[in-house]
Amino acid sequence: YMSAHFVFQITITKTYNDNALFDDLRNLFTKAGAKNENVTFIFTDAEVKSEGFLEYVNSFLATGDIVGLFAKDQKDGMAGDT
Predict the structure, then answer these.
(1) DSSP letter string, 45-58
(2) CB contact set of 58 (below 8 Å; sequence gap of 6+)
(3) What is the CA 4 to chain-centroid distance, rounded?
(4) Host H or E run for residue 29
(5) Which of 60, 46, 35, 39 is nearest to 12 (CA)?
(6) 10: how many CB neighbours lie within 10 A of its CB?
(7) Distance CA 22, CA 69 (A)
(8) Which residues contact 79 (CB under 8 A, 6 or more apart)?
(9) Which of 72, 79, 63, 73 is nearest to 30 (CA)?
(10) In this structure, are residues 78 and 26 in contact, taking their beta carbons and an 8 Å threshold?
(11) How many CB atoms within 10 Å of residue 5?
């Protein structure tokens, strides 16, 4: 079952920040949602570069959304594409 999934794990670098995390998450959400692909996101304690990373993941797990991840026009465009 898992072999059919796209597996992604972030790679922490000196310059990896909230914006880079948002870019990675946008790509994953687009794959999983708009493109309807099976996606597995691996996130371990080694990838926690700032406390904000945990807040974003917690927000997603609790509400299914990350505030500010997509602009309203991007959401509207994706909704129109489906």
Answers:
(1) GGG--SHHHHHHHH
(2) none
(3) 19
(4) helix 18-29
(5) 46
(6) 19
(7) 6
(8) none
(9) 79
(10) no
(11) 13
- Of the pLDDT bands very low, low, confident and very high (cuts 50, 70, 90), residue 75 is confident
* Cβ partners under 8 Å of residue 20, min gap 6: 10
- Residue 79 has a pLDDT of 75
At which residue do the structure tokens 């790509």 appear? 27
> CA-based Rg of the chain, rounded to a whole angstrom?
13
What is the DSSP track for 64-79?
A: S--TTSS-HHHHHHHH
Q: What is the pLDDT of residues 23-39, one digit of tens each?
A: 999 999 999 988 889 99
